[in-house]
Structure formats: C-alpha cells, structure tokens
Amino acid sequence: MTADSHHPFTTVIGLEVHVQLQTKTKLFCGCVTTFGSAPNTQVCPTCLGLPGSLPVMNKRAFDLSLRAALALHCKIASFTKWDRKNYFYPDLPKGYQISQFDLPFSYEGHLEVTDPKGAFEPSNVRIIRVHLEEDAGKSMHDETAGTADSRIDLNRTGTPLCEIVTEPDMRSPEEARAWLNELKLLLVYLGVSDCNMQEGSLRVDANVNLHIDVDGKKVATPIAEIKNMNSFRAVEHAIEHEVDRQYDAWEETGKTIQDEAKTTRGWDDAKGKTFLQREKEESADYRYFPDPDLLPIRIPQERVNEAKANLGELPAQICQRLQTQYGIKLYDANVIVKQGRELIEYFEVAATKSGDGKRTSSWIQQDVMRTLNETQANIEEFAVNAEQLGDLLKRVSRGDFDNARARDVFAHLLRTNDSVEEAIKSLGIESVDSNEIEVLCRELLDANPQVIDDVKSGKQQAVGALIGQAKKKNANANPKQVRETLLQLIEQS
After folding, report:
1. H or E element, residue 188
2. How many CB atoms lie within 10 A of CB 144?
3. How sure is the predictor about 77, in pLDDT bands with cuts at 50, 70 and 90?
4. pLDDT reported for residue 211
5. Residue 320 within any structural domain of the chain
6. Cα–Cα distance between 86 and 171 in angstroms, integer?
7. 383 and 253 share a domain?
8. More confident residue, 424 or 455
9. Where does residue 95 rank: exposed (0-12), middle (13-18), buried (19+ CB within 10 A)?
10. pLDDT higher than 60, residue 437
C-alpha cells in the first residue's frame, strides 16, 4: 500500500521465468550454445528454419528440465507434445517458436519461500507448469550513433529454455525477489542452469495487479506484464513502481480489469519507471498447433523414478539438516546454503572438526566470506582449508586462546602454508594455565581496589576495565577466563 492511499489493497504477483539450460548444444540441432561468440556464427539450417531442415530433440535438455520440474514438486505427464507458437519478430527467423501449449510435460508444482528476517510470512508459491521451449535470437539497437540501427544476432536462436510459470501467489516485491533467489539457488545447485542474468541465462517477466478494497468489495486493476528487468533488484523495484502507478491510475481513471486488457510494460532502470509497450497477446493470437516435424513424447514412469532418485538432497532439506545437526539458526543455515555446494561442504568439514557448529558458522560468515569477497576468490582455492579452520576453532572452544588470538592465527594461515600448530608456534601463542591467570588477576585487583567495591555493589561490568589491562600484561590471557577468575576472587574477598 502507498503511504497516501485511501483504500487498502493487496498486491498480486505472478512470475514467468525463462531459464537457459546447461547444454552444450541447442534444443533441436547440433549448434553450440557458447555465450559471447561473434554474432551469427552459431547457426545452421535447422535453427534458421531453412526449407528441408528437420529438428531432432536434445535428450539432455529434456533430462535437465525434468530434474527442475521434480525438484519443484511438479506432477509429470505421461504424454506430452511440441507446439508451434506463431508470431512475427525480426529475431525469430522461422516465424514461429517451438514450445509446449496445452500438454506441458509437467504441472502443479510449488516452491516454498521464507524470510528469516520476517519481512513477509512464509508462503508456498504454486507453480502452474514447467515446460520446454526454444529461445529466440537477440535484437541489438544502436541508438548512440544517431541512426537507431537495429541488428540481429541469431546465435541464441534455438537455445533450450525451461519456462517456469507461477500462480499469482506472491503479495510483495520483497517476496517475489526472495522467491527468485530461492529458485536460482535450486537450479544452480542441481546443475540445471547457471542462471546468469547478465548473460541472459535467466529472464523474468512479472505479472502485477492490485485488488483494492472499496467499501468491502474487491476491485481489481488491469494486469500489467513487466519485462526488461536485468536483475532481481530490478524486479523488486519494477514491481514497487508498478504498484504505485496502478493505484494512482485507478484513482485517476477508475478503470478495472473489466475495462482494460492486459498490457505489456517495459522497465527503464535508469528512470525507475515502467512504460507501455503494447497490449498483451492472448494464446489465441499465437495460433498454436502441434509441430508436424516432431513426434509426441511418452515419459515412462521408470524414467521419472530414476530422475527423482538422482536428485539428492535439495537446498531446503540441507538447510533444515544443518540446523538440527549442527545447532545453528535458520538465518545462518540459509546464508551458508545460499553460497552453494562448495561452501556447504566446507562448513560441514570444519564444523565436524571443531565440534562447535555455531562458532564455525559465525567464523565462516564473518571471516571466511569477508576474505573471499575481498580477494575475489572461491572457496575451492581458499588459503585456509576446512580442516585447518576446524582445528583452529576447536582450540578456541576448549579455551587454548581467545577469538582475537585465533584471528591472528587465521591471518597467518592466509599468508603462509603453515599448519595451525606451526602458526601458533610462529606467533608465540601459548596456553596460559589457571594458576597464571589467578596470579595475574590478584595483581590487577590489588592495584584497582575500586573495582572490588563496584562489583560488590552490583556493577559486575566494572571488571571489564581490568580485562584490557590483563591482555596488555599477557597477550595470551583468555578474556573469558580472566573475567570469570576476577569475579570469583572478588566474591571470595
């Protein structure tokens, strides 16, 4: 709801996501799908739609899309077919796109989305269908030269796409962005797609309208489909703007979903606005019909069962397991899981070695991930391996030294090939026994009698001033142990 709106309303959002599958070749021909090649160098008679050429289905593309559909809890059809979606556009050389219309290979799925920070309630977003189709080419518009020339690159034509269509179950821009992050995590984890939006591997269209409460009656605004969003941040901002625009338009014109057809709007990231492109076509406008060059597909249940068995543990399941197995919070588990397989494995090895999941999780988020970001490295080439981190944190947990000294060791390990033990010796870090700590604490209390009086009057925090002094006298002194000993001695005095 906008700050100055007079009527309460509900934002209604559905998403259409197109994901390029990680195949080496296109959906119906042998042309490669490598990104960044010179324009129009990855084409052949089949993807150009030249007379006499015939398509042959890419089996790996189907297997990858099946993995995605099963991970999204979709039902798998025993029978599916290919359809021609007819429309004219310069980057579509055949004049039609091979897609799936009334009999997609999967349907009725769902993907749960949560927000550990509580910005929205957990929801189970329903998925209408997951289906396969081929990509179109790319139009490139040169407006900087003042000629507004357009050129067509057909390298992308025929690249296999997995289209995921949701029900309009999302209620806020934040929820839509979070759901997309959850979907991306799942697809990357399964190896279905790299989901690189900058390279066009993942594209999102958002269908948005408002249900406005007017004197107890629901009034629905016309639906707008928003395109041209090149990041999840842009998706969130585009929906935010569209919500405000639709409410203002309704207040000004009073037009509802009955008065105005669905429209397609583009997103201008620089201006932070959507703009009208065209009225949205309906399915009848595309004149779908079964592709006569491709046979229908029967999907044996044995193949579905095999694909399901090979999915393995999914990110949501891993997130739950990390909480129960290592005693970490939902937020921390989410952070780790969202980094991908490699960091999950790193955490589990380190946490097992240290015996302290909470401490390990904290260190990975604060120290490991920060260092990775600063050095632009990945976890496989990180200087401190999981065993070393686990060994270091085990020593901290049993009280050999504190976090500050542990970070000295960590920094040393980043610079050298030393083991944890070698780093400790090199830095002169020694475990201080309880007798040494007691002697040190008695000296500090003798020199600071006021602290004793303050603590006895109920100000336990007063001992904090002595902990810094203890560290100056002995850098290896454990602050926690010093604090506990100080309080014990004061109580006994």
Report:
1. helix 173-189
2. 7
3. very high
4. 97
5. no
6. 33
7. no
8. 424
9. exposed
10. yes
* The pairing of beta strand 106-113 with beta strand 96-99: unpaired
With tokens 């289906």, the residue in question is 131
- Mapped onto helix, strand or coil, the DSSP state of residue 196 is coil
Name the residue with tokens 């399901």.
308
Phi-psi region of 250 (alpha: psi -120 to 50; beta: other; left: phi over 0): alpha
Coil, helix or strand at residue 204: strand
- 286 within a domain of the structure (yes/no): yes
Structure tokens at 82: 């290919």
How many helices (H) and strands (E) in the chain?
A: 17, 17
Mean pLDDT of the chain: 91
What are the tens digits of pLDDT across the range 321-330? Answer: 999 999 999 9
Q: Where are the alpha helices (DSSP H) in 74-140?
A: none
The whole-number pLDDT of residue 350 equals 98
CA distance 27 to 266: 28
Q: Which domain holds residue 476?
A: 434-492
Q: How far apart are CA 80 and CA 88, in angstroms?
A: 26
Q: Model's pTM, two decimal places?
A: 0.83
Residue 162 and residue 154 in contact, taking contact as beta carbons nearer than 8 Å: no
The 3-state DSSP class for residue 140 equals: strand
Over residues 326-342, mean pLDDT: 93
Same structural domain, 219 and 356: no
Question: What pLDDT sits at residue 148?
Answer: 64
Instruction: Select from 413, 401, 383 the least CA-distant residue to 476.
Output: 401
Q: 38-42, 119-123, 160-164, 456-460: which range is least confident on average?
A: 456-460
Quick check: is 332 in a domain?
no
Indicate the burial class of 259 (C-beta count within 10 angstroms; 0-12, 13-18, 19 or more): exposed
Number of domains in the chain: 3
Determine how many CB atoms are found less than 10 A away from the CB of residue 78: 11
Does residue 167 sit in the same domain as residue 184?
yes
